[in-house]
Known about the structure:
One of its GO terms (molecular function) is transketolase activity. With about 325 residues, this protein is α/β, with parallel strands linked by helices. It has two domains: about 10-170, Thiamin diphosphate (ThDP)-binding fold, Pyr/PP domains (Rossmann fold), CATH 3.40.50; about 195-320, Rossmann fold (3-Layer(aba) Sandwich). The chain has helices at about 10-15, 15-30, 40-45, 50-55, 65-75, 90-95, 95-105, 135-140, 150-165, 210-225, 240-250, 265-280, 300-305, 310-320, and strands at about 35-40, 60, 80-85, 110-115, 145, 170, 195, 200-205, 230-235, 235-240, 255-260, 285-290. The chain has a seven-stranded mixed sheet with strand order 2-1-3-4-6-5-10, sandwiched between helices. Strands 7-9-8-11-12 form a five-stranded mixed sheet, sandwiched between helices.
Amino acid sequence: MAGLTYTILDATNMSTAEVYGKALEHLADNYDNVVGLTADLAKSTKIGVLAEKHPDRLYNMGIAEQNLFGVAAGMASAGLVPYVSTFAIFTSMRALDQVHTDICYQNLNVKMIATHGGLSFGQAGSTHHCTEDIGIMRTMANLTIVVPADGISAAEAVTAAYSKEGPVYIRLNRGYDQPVYDTSECDFQIGKSIELAEGSDLTIIACGAAVYRAREAASILRNSDGIHARVIDMHTIKPIDRDAILKAVHDTRRIITVEDHNIIGGLGSAVAEVMAESGKACAFKRLGVPDTFSIIGLHEDLMAHYGFDMNGIASAARELMNRDFEEDDDWDDEL
């Protein structure tokens, strides 16, 4: 993250969105073709930070999300690199036709920063929850999908997206994420997961807000149960890090996925597809929002309600440790 000097202490005082806003400002300092677009949510999504230093490079399209993405496609066609930011629910559903046809089908260089993902805007009600977007976006050809764990990794994702040719979907929360990284330890590369904790008993694969909970759950399991859980931050959902998944299957034979998303179509489904195609079975559990519209409440309370806070993850791990599976060390007889 060249040029950025935020530390874990700074990140604690800034929401995830504020950190990404600073990263975008830094990109604009260095690249004249970077512009920002908003649909009257510059303050809420923090893309307004860009206008503080570059007021002529942030465009407000008004409350017109379809127009927002159509304009971004036009700008990209003209050689600009537009960063478009609005709520995840509006990016992945209200403006889906424009995202599909104007941006992904044309393979245009548009970077979509979708905030308030998952249940992070829990008290706003089910119309503002977004627990389907990863599943929707995974089916868009040409699209890269990144779900950072905290502010530092969000800034890394925003910076890395500039060098990634083609459309990129970066999914953030409302903000105020617990810090997972400081600048010295976040070796962020699109498509390459990060192992946060070593373990040989089972592997917890998480993304977004679930990463911090997964790491804390692993600590509980190690100190209270003697269970050594590997923790993987699978920040890139597409293209997913197949090597890390298959290594975890081989080494631990038990996998739990954790995501702030419907368990259908998101991280858990992506991991399951890799395992199924490999022909290597293991004990497997998906944690996230079940196939339902969420109840309303604070983010932390909702994660606990649906069982993917740190206590829910630890409980699922204990259950998985008691599950039997076929012992087969080399899988030579598998397809």
